[in-house]
Amino acid sequence: MPLIVMCGYPCSGKTRRAEELKAHFEKNMERLVHVVGDEALGVDRNGVYSDSQKEKNVRSSLKADVERKVNKDNIVILDSLNYIKGYRYELFCLIKHAQTPHCLVHCLTSDEESSLWNKNRDAAEQYSQDIFDALVQRFEAPDSRNRWDSPLFTVLKDDPLPLEAISDALFKRRAPPKNQSTQSQPLSSANFLYELDKVTQDVLTAIFNAQKTSVPGDLISVPGATEKVELSRSINMAELRKLRRQFISYSKMHPTENTGQIANMFVQYLNKSLH
Question: Cα–Cα 20 to 30 A to 236, which of 110, 210, 213, 260?
Answer without folding.
Answer: 260
